[in-house]
Amino acid sequence: MRLAVLVVIVAAIVAFVVPPVPQSLAYHHMADERAWLGIPNALNVLSNLPFAIVGLLGLSAIAASPFRDPWERWPYAALFAGVALTAAGSSYYHLAPDNARLVWDRLPMTIGFMGLLTAVVAERVSLRLARLLFVPLLVLGAFSVGYWAWSESQGAGDLRLYGLVQFGSLLAVILLLVRYRTPYPGGEYLVAGLAAYAAAKVLELADAWIFALGHVVSGHTLKHLAAAAGVASMVMMLRARQQELVPTSRFREVV
Question: Taking the domains of the chain in order of start, what are their residue ranges?
Fold first, then answer.
């Protein structure tokens, strides 16, 4: 845990040593802007539907999955609720992309990131620590988006805190996966989910290049599908727990 904290602190220092990073307006211009059935940017809008599906499936899986403590359901509830809300926020953004709408895309995403980080802390490190971190992390995630939006309104956009929340939380999750074992089965699904999210970021960067291959689908549309597949892996992780109950002797509490 100390290593994860140290790495996040170093990442925070590095993030705030570099100058403020405004949101590039070019970000709002996706490669595939084709309309369909009166829906602008249709594939980028409709490809958000899987987020709603896997988010709701995840919320359903929480109720049937075994946990050493009932409270452990709350971080997963934040994760899957954030994903389900991302379907609405991202669809709203892609209908007419701009900074104002991008807030509603990013806000539920931070809920999901912080929910995942807290869930990993609860399962692998300390339930007590996770309880202490849960609400502050959610507030930090929401604040990072609010601060970015405010900074843009002041003409000095600053994405550094939001970037730290997104990538810092995922980096911390990866370090915790390496350092601590989980008492639950199905941990490989979480690894697969993180790999799918990494693939989603690559697809996002290759948006125009992929679309140029045949003008069938863009990298951004595929990004949505890959990210939703990553969340689906976490749903499968929870369902794996329903198949194999782990003896409570394997549960541990580390402070």
Answer: 2-9+38-185
